[in-house]
């Protein structure tokens, strides 16, 4: 029976390993980006490259770049006028200006986010109601030009999308990838395993089924000190007080402390 259980445990670990690795490899495959739409006639295609998401500060770091229509470029491919792109609402100025006579580059813009990092690892975010306006100034006055918006993703561990019906403000969405969530769940299961093992040893010793061994007290201490390093490995670094702390981490620490108390009780009862 013991051999059968051992084989079953090894098989379960192997299946979990293969599943997590497969999810990671599938998520890490190079997938060709969808073709970006062309710039509108007489206007610009505004690309929002997502660089970083900070759930604790409700901010989304982006870089704004443009692809002007040929009518806004001279024969050398440089802008015939200064193009200004304004993204609202934004946490900073939300304005990127590309000077006349230059090739369009990129500029950082930080957007506001709605979401709750305390729901980690199932937190989801969106930057809703974004309006993008572009103007060009060729020296004779500022003129508003048509705009198309696209999103590119430079953030690992996130799946992002753009909701744009073409009739008004756009929305950027972001949620953690499947492999990131799976990794987080596995780390939580590792934490849960710690008090389960120590409680098993403590209860067996307290009931007299196993002999008290002083070195095991050190093992309990190592288990307690292992909680914080494992907690710090959580992808996305959820802040203290997140849901996972109340659902998992708190009870892991409590279980380990109870295990230690039970083992010391067993020592007291079995001691001379």
Characteristics:
single chain; 272 residues; 28% strand; alpha+beta; six-stranded antiparallel β-sheet; 10 strands
Summarize the model shown.
This protein has 272 residues and is an alpha+beta fold. Helix content is 37%, strand content 28%. Strands 3, 4, 6, 7, 9 and 10 form a six-stranded antiparallel sheet that branches. Strands 5-2-1-8 form a four-stranded mixed sheet, with no helix packed on it.
What do you see in this structure?
The chain has about 270 residues and is of the alpha+beta class. About 35% of the residues lie in helices and about 30% in strands. It has helices at about 1-30, 180-205, 215-230, 245-270, and strands at about 45-55, 60-70, 80-90, 95-100, 105-110, 125-135, 140-145, 145-155, 160-165, 170-175. Strands 3, 4, 6, 7, 9 and 10 form a six-stranded antiparallel beta sheet that branches. It has a four-stranded mixed beta sheet with strand order 5-2-1-8, with no helix packed on it. β9 and β10 (about 170-175) form a beta hairpin. α1 (about 1-30) packs antiparallel against α2 (about 180-205). The chain is elongated, with a radius of gyration of 28 Å. The two termini are about 35 Å apart.
């Amino acid at each position: 029976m013991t051999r059968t259980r051992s084989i079953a445990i090894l098989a379960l670990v192997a299946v979990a390993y293969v599943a997590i690795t497969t999810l990671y490899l599938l998520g890490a495959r190079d997938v060709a980006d969808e073709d970006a739409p062309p710039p509108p006639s007489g206007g610009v295609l505004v690309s929002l490259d997502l660089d970083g998401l900070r759930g604790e500060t409700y901010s989304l770091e982006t870089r704004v770049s443009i692809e002007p229509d040929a009518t806004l470029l001279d024969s050398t491919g440089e802008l015939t006028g200064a193009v200004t792109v304004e993204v609202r609402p934004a946490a900073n100025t939300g304005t990127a200006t590309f000077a006349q006579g230059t090739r369009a580059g990129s500029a950082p813009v930080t957007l506001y986010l709605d979401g709750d990092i305390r729901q980690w690892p199932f937190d989801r975010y969106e930057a809703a109601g974004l309006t993008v306006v572009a103007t060009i100034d060729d020296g004779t006055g500022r003129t508003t030009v048509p705009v198309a918006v696209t999103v590119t993703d430079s953030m690992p561990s996130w799946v992002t999308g753009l909701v744009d019906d073409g009739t008004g403000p756009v929305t950027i969405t972001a949620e953690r990838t499947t492999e990131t969530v799976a990794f987080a769940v596995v780390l939580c299961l590792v934490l849960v395993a710690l008090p389960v093992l120590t409680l098993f040893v403590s209860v067996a010793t307290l009931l007299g089924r196993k002999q008290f061994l002083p070195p095991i007290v050190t093992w309990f201490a190592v288990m307690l000190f292992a909680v914080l390093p494992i907690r710090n490995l959580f992808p996305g670094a959820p802040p203290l007080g997140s849901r996972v702390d109340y659902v998992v981490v708190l009870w892991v620490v409590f279980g380990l402390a109870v295990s230690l108390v039970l083992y010391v009780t067993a020592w007291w009862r079995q001691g001379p």
